[in-house]
Automatic annotation (TrEMBL):
<protein>
    <submittedName>
        <fullName>Fucolectin-related protein</fullName>
    </submittedName>
</protein>
<keyword id="KW-0732">Signal</keyword>
<feature type="signal peptide">
    <location>
        <begin position="1"/>
        <end position="25"/>
    </location>
</feature>
<dbReference type="InterPro" id="IPR008979">
    <property type="entry name" value="Galactose-bd-like_sf"/>
</dbReference>
<dbReference type="Pfam" id="PF22633">
    <property type="entry name" value="F5_F8_type_C_2"/>
</dbReference>
<dbReference type="InterPro" id="IPR051941">
    <property type="entry name" value="BG_Antigen-Binding_Lectin"/>
</dbReference>
Amino acid sequence: MGACAIYVLGFVVLISACLSGICLAQQCNQEGWFGDKCQFQCHCAGNGECSQSGTCSDGCDPQWFGPACQYDVSEYNISGGSESDLSWLTDDDDTTCNTDDLESVTTVLDTPHTLTWVRVVVNSTALLDQCELSYQLKDSDASTPCNDSRSATVDNTTVDISCPTKDVVTHVTLSGSIVRGMCSLYISGGRNVALKQTAYQSQTYNEWYASNAVDGNPGIPDNLASLQSTCSHTHYGLGDSAYWRLVFSIDVDINRFIIYNRREPSRRDCCEKRLVNFTLEVFPSTGQNRQYTYTDPGGPAQQVYTVVPSPQIGFPIKTIFIHVRKNRQNDIVTLCEVYAFGEVVCPPGKFGRQCERDCNCFNQTDTCFVSTGGCPSGCAAGYTGEDCYTRKA
């Protein structure tokens, strides 16, 4: 009886410790996740562990940047035939900088999308406010200046510049004195707002759950065990009623979708063709009679589909719906990962991954950046940091 009592006491102590977040935080970090519900993915250099807040001790993986390394870096090439050595801009090194006195740099996005914000790293604090940003829209040869840009200083050598567009951008140009000391340029492709959101499907086949398609892992091609553990799969025989649906916990703006098919090219009679002619629909919150629809034009099945709305979807999104009603070859919806890159929609004065934080700007009427919490007017008295959220000692 006494042994039983000791066991129960130990169990209570263990539960108490876990409820305090200690066990959860350690397990999250070791498995590559962070957050109070392990809902955010670490993107640290060398696959290192991140802290409970997402901080990486050795910096971000080269494909990611920004707060907690959550923002996708849009890949780009340098436009034009300049004879200058521009490797300093694409070497993923913030310490190598322009040495040729260039006064402008134009980049060409590998995947054009709407522009939201960029981060510029320089070698001189004096250059941080000496920047002009312009862009070129898809199907246009004209350069458009970003007249409504706002900037927020991150630290002594880093500045974030907001320049939201409604249409798809193909080129981004930085000019002005800032280019002479520029070391790195990060063009935001958005944050994966679909990650670990609530997913449903019409009916689940075996253990191919709907949530598998937003677990951050697209699986290993031609590896059935890997795909089964990380892909979704509706049941056979549902006909036109088969679907996969994602509901966001908070309204979001999305600039592009990347959908990973079930990538098994060795099984040509099986799986990749299931997504041919798929339809993607997005809807706002209940009560708003609006939607955006994209239907795959068909042709050979693709292992990865990229959907870039143009112009930008004009309303905050609450629900994503994917089905294959026009595909008479199959009545199954199989998805290995659905990425939705964008940002949450916060009310004025709020920011954060769930709009959970208050802006602390020097100018109280100033709206901080939803992505970072940064303030164009600087931090309010008593606050410091990239997000103006850390109290000064």
